[in-house]
Amino acid sequence: MLAVEQMTAEQRALYEEVVSGPRGQLIGPLRAAIHSPELAVLWSRFGEFLRFRTCLPAALKELAILVTARRWNSQVEWWAHARDAGVAGLPADIIERILHGSPVAFADEAQREVYEYARLLQEHGHVPASLHAAIVARWGVRGVVELTAVIGYYTMVAMTLNAHVIPVPAGVEAPLPDSAELFQLAPGTQAS
């Protein structure tokens, strides 16, 4: 991370924009992206839209992000979004099961659909037509497009965090087991 006094005028402008916006601080992948100011500006604005302004409810968006963070074993992404998911109302037992790769039985069908969409898209590179149709039926075409963008964006975030070995904040213990392998998540089911 560049110290503020080491930043160029472009980097400093981006830094000020980020810390004065909804994020409140420059953390995660922007710590790497700031070395390419034009990229970082676009990245920041895209990420801000996906994190704060999609049509998806916050708990479902955070669920998709957690599935992505766990798939990629992204320590910082998991650390930041496990907290956000809890605040957004995602049940703690679901967060815990995703963390450990345990089967998840969802009482909420919308949660199961989002979990499976994120899991299968990252595991196979596509989703079954019936699952895509279920997301469209529930959230419209805009919803499925934004959900896919959230998953793709947070995959890029996870890859950046991992490639540049961006650490969790000082004094925070890494929340995920250390692994260089992609993590296999168990299929989600409907609770009986």
Query: Please, how many helices?
Result: 8
Fraction of residues in H or I helices: 55-70%
Quick one: overall form? Answer: globular
Rg result: 17 Å
Largest sheet: 2 strands, parallel
The stretches of 5 or more residues where confidence is low (pLDDT under 50) are none
CATH class of the largest domain: Mainly Alpha
**Ends apart, CA distance between termini:** 48 Å
Largest sheet, spatial ordering of strands: 1-2
What is the CATH topology classification name of the largest domain? AhpD-like
Summarize the helix and strand pattern as letters.
Answer: HHHHHHEHHE
CATH architecture call of the largest domain = Up-down Bundle
Q: How many runs of DSSP E, i.e. beta strands?
A: 2
Class inferred from helices and paired strands: mainly alpha
Q: Report the sheet-strand fraction.
A: under 5%
Overall number of structural domains: 2
The average pLDDT value, as a whole number, equals 93
Record keyword descriptors for this entry:
AhpD-like; two-stranded parallel ribbon; single chain; globular; mainly alpha; 192 residues; 8 helices
Describe this structure in words.
This protein has helices at 9-20, 30-33, 37-52, 58-71, 75-88, 92-100, 109-124, 129-163, and strands at residues 104-106, 188-190. The chain has 192 residues and is mainly α. The protein folds into two domains: 1-53, no CATH class; 56-190, Up-down Bundle (AhpD-like), CATH 1.20.1290. Strands 1-2 form a two-stranded parallel ribbon. The N and C termini lie far apart (48 Å).
